[in-house]
């Protein structure tokens, strides 16, 4: 696959996608502080027990980079579709297939596991704790799928108005945050899942069009992004942590705040300033082959990394707390983190290699392309189910059978979109 890469492909895009996902995976594994004592297992948050570690979230919160890379990739695919005469439905069904197919495998596996655990006597609260932890990563798809659905429209806006369309999304995000804090319209804050991430996604369009400027200008953007972030946090009402927060009532991510946009600008400015030398480095075989390998199973790595951790922790608990009896945030705990993360990768990689064929699965040759209305409707149903499962998991849902209904929403949405295996 690496050897067949077209010469015109921007390999740095794929490299940033791979690195950002690995950073997210590693960060999730690091932030969870588990402790086994006297036959019980407690789950703690490293940011809560050691607030001084919150600066790590400025490094490991790289979802803005993934959305920027997504904007670049969506622009390239839309341009390609336009040259080939592929319409919106033909373009969208291919993009949705790559996102939804690996997700279905994870959710169906957890649905079966939840049923088995339930009839085995596992309580709803324990089941919900485990499944919510495992399904946290899918929140990303709940919004990213909708960003993809809107991509042709937002790309046209970019082509017509350029950075004015970017600043329109930024302004919407700022106004929503102002209403969130000043008027306590917390319900309105959830709309920033669109405004903030659409603004970040727009930066990918700017990158694709070569509108981001010279390395020096990019470093200026980086400095301005960090300065704005500093002001928002230390002179404004925003928390310091970029992932989660010791204050359960306030978070930069739930719902998203404009701090994620300023962080994304800072990170992107820095990373894009070294694009030239990185592209020369990626012209070699070894680093590029590793990048291709990771990208060939990137969604599987992301979707399954918490599930792998949950399974290993469960086995360790059944083995008398093996490896879990170290006091979190102690010096011994920090020294053993490389071992902890290394073991998790040793298990995750074979799992990803085994299951990654689902994300590379193409629709059957000659399969009928659903109408644009069906695809959009199916995507909305799928995203609704994803959001509910990410929020409540399986087990103790606030409404009877909400978990089952949420899973069925995802399956129904995939069916409406023609994405279920065997559909033609």
What does this molecule look like?
The protein is mostly helical and 424 residues long. The chain has one domain. Helices cover 68% and strands 3% of the residues. It has helices at 11-31, 46-49, 57-60, 63-84, 88-119, 124-135, 139-161, 163-182, 192-208, 215-234, 258-272, 275-282, 285-295, 298-318, 331-335, 337-355, 372-392, 402-416, and strands at 32-37, 40-45. The longest helix has 32 residues, at 88-119. The radius of gyration is 22 Å and the shape is globular. The mean pLDDT is 90.
Number of alpha- plus pi-helical segments: 18
Instruction: Work out the radius of gyration.
Output: 22 Å
How many domain modules? 1
Provide the helix percentage. Answer: 55-70%
Main β sheet profile: 2 strands, antiparallel
Looking at how many chains there are and whether they match, the oligomeric state comes to single chain
Query: Judging from the principal axes of the Cα atoms, what is the shape?
Result: globular
Strand tally is: 2
Mean pLDDT: 90
Strand residue percentage:
under 5%
Biggest sheet strand line-up: 1-2
User: Termini separation (Å)?
Assistant: 28 Å
What structural class should be given to the helix and strand makeup?
mainly alpha
- Can you tell me the residue ranges where pLDDT is under 50 for at least 5 consecutive residues? none
Q: How would you spell out the order of helices and strands?
A: HEEHHHHHHHHHHHHHHHHH
């Amino acid at each position: 696959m690496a050897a067949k890469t077209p010469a015109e492909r921007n390999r740095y895009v794929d490299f940033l996608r791979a690195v950002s996902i690995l950073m997210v995976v590693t960060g999730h594994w690091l932030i969870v502080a588990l402790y086994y004592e006297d036959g019980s297992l407690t789950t703690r948050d490293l940011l809560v027990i050691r607030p001084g570690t919150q600066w790590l979230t400025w490094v490991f919160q790289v979802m803005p980079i993934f959305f920027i890379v997504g904007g670049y990739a969506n622009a390239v695919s839309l341009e390609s579709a336009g040259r080939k005469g592929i319409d919106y439905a033909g373009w969208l069904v291919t993009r949705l297939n790559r996102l939804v197919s690996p997700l279905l495998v994870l959710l169906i596996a957890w649905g079966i596991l939840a049923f088995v655990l339930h009839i085995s006597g596992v309580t709803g609260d324990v089941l919900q704790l485990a499944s919510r932890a495992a399904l946290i990563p899918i929140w990303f798809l709940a919004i990213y799928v909708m960003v993809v659905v809107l991509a042709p429209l937002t790309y046209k806006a970019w082509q017509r108005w350029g950075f004015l369309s970017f600043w329109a999304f930024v302004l919407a995000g700022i106004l929503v945050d102002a209403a969130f804090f000043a008027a306590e319209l917390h319900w309105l804050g959830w709309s920033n899942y669109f405004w903030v991430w659409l603004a970040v996604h727009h930066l990918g369009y700017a990158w694709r069009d070569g509108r981001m400027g010279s390395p020096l200008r990019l470093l200026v953007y980086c400095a301005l992004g960090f300065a704005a972030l500093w002001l928002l946090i230390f002179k404004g009402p925003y928390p310091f942590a970029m992932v989660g927060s010791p204050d359960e009532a306030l978070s930069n991510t739930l719902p998203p705040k404009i701090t994620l946009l300023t962080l994304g600008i800072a990170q992107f400015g820095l990373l894009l300033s070294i694009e030239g030398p990185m592209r020369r480095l990626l012209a070699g075989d070894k680093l590029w082959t590793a990048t291709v390998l990771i990208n060939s199973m990137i969604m599987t790595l992301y979707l399954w990394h918490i599930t792998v951790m949950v399974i290993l922790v469960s086995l360790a608990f059944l083995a008398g707390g093996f490896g879990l009896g170290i006091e979190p945030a102690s010096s011994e705990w920090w020294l053993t983190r490389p071992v902890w993360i290394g073991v998790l990768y040793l298990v995750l990689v074979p799992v990803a290699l085994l299951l990654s064929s689902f994300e590379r699965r193409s629709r059957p040759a000659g399969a009928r392309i659903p109408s644009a209305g069906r695809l959009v409707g199916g995507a909305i149903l799928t995203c609704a189910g994803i959001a509910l499962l990410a929020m409540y998991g399986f087990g103790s849902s606030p409404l009877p059978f909400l978990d089952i209904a949420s899973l069925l929403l995802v399956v129904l949405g995939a069916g409406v979109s023609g994405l279920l295996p065997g559909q033609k």
